[in-house]
Amino acid sequence: MIDFERFLDLSKPVSEIADTPVVSCTEDERVRNSIAMILNGFSRIMVLDKGEIRGFLTSLDVLDFLGGGSKYQLYVRYSKGLDLPVNKIMNNEWHPLEKKHSVGDALQVFQKHGKDFHPIVHRDRFSAVLSEMDFLKHLNEPLGFSAEDIMDGKPIIVKGHYSVLDVAKMLCRGEFRFLPVVRDGFLLGLVTPYDIISYLNKGPGLNNLRKANFESTAVMNRDLLTVGPKDDLHEAVRLMNSKRINSVPVTDEGEMLGLITRRDVIDILS
Asked: What predicted TM-score, i.e. pTM, was given to this entire model?
């Protein structure tokens, strides 16, 4: 375990470290417009009504709606398609933090629920978003653990020949934020919900996920940042912080050995 108090006073109010950019919309906002927000770089959209939280929307919710999961039934059922209000597909499960909660309290909530962010409220009104990154950005020196000490040595992977629709279904079914693409044990790239939505938007069209016949290699991110198995964990944290990414693969001469995620680091903070 990493003694987080070496880096941050755990008794300070959580509102003092919350620095995650956030955008919001109302319940009647169109899915089409929310997708534009996501493609502009916002990984989550808070859905508010006069300052009160009604839900939130992520790229995974959108991918689910476009055909990756059960929310596609809503796309089929309603004739409005991408003009459906976001309240039909938004996520209603959240665990709010109070503005007065301490950093230590918040850390326990993250470890208990395994979510990548939690909204902060004050007097029942939305105040801010606290994300895993808001913790990790304080880990600014070697941590005394190697990458191989922490990595998941058997992450869920996809093969390069898998169709994008199959990958989308895997992402939605497992609620994954990303999946590594591997061929013969060697890492080719990573696929996120954002990557698929962006590819559809630029080419086949957002309505065509179920009709798409291209492979996962067409949408994957090839510009990978990796660490070696003996590297200090801090190097992976540094990359996640500086590039605002969720995970760092652990490789040895291109061969994939494992994966380190923000959640892996959160789980070993004490």
From this structure: 0.94
